[in-house]
Design brief:
The protein has 114 residues and is mostly helical. It is built from four helices and two strands; from the N terminus they run H-H-E-E-H-H.
């Protein structure tokens, strides 16, 4: 945090530094959310809400790529996702919506400073 503060105050483009920091934090949150989605999907099993399995050889088709896509849609509140089925899925989606709203507000707040 101190590095970001010093870089922002000593830079000729402080808003660029702040925007890059916000982008990095957003990507980190999306990555962590995708990892949690994989863990919950493995715990719950294949019920239509989780990432899809290939029935031919019974292995996941790019679970991280699909989870990253799902997480990006969820955290950035874009939507168009399958509805949750179990209580764990509903709780996870609810927390994701709250994180997404707060992150969206942070992005809008950061952009209004320009």
């Amino acid at each position: 945090m101190e590095f970001i503060d010093r870089s922002e105050t000593r830079s000729n483009h402080p808003f660029g530094v702040r925007s890059a920091y916000l982008l990095i934090v957003t990507l980190m949150i999306i990555h962590w959310n995708a990892c949690l989605y994989i863990l919950i999907s493995d715990f719950v099993g294949n019920d239509g809400w989780t990432y899809h399995y290939d029935e031919n050889n019974n292995r996941a088709i790019s679970p991280y790529v699909y989870s990253l896509f799902w997480s990006t849609l969820m955290v950035l509140t874009i939507g168009n996702l399958p509805p949750p089925v179990t209580n764990i899925e509903i709780a996870f989606v609810t927390v994701d919506f709250l994180i997404g709203v707060l992150l969206f507000a942070a992005i809008i707040g950061n952009l209004t400073l320009f």
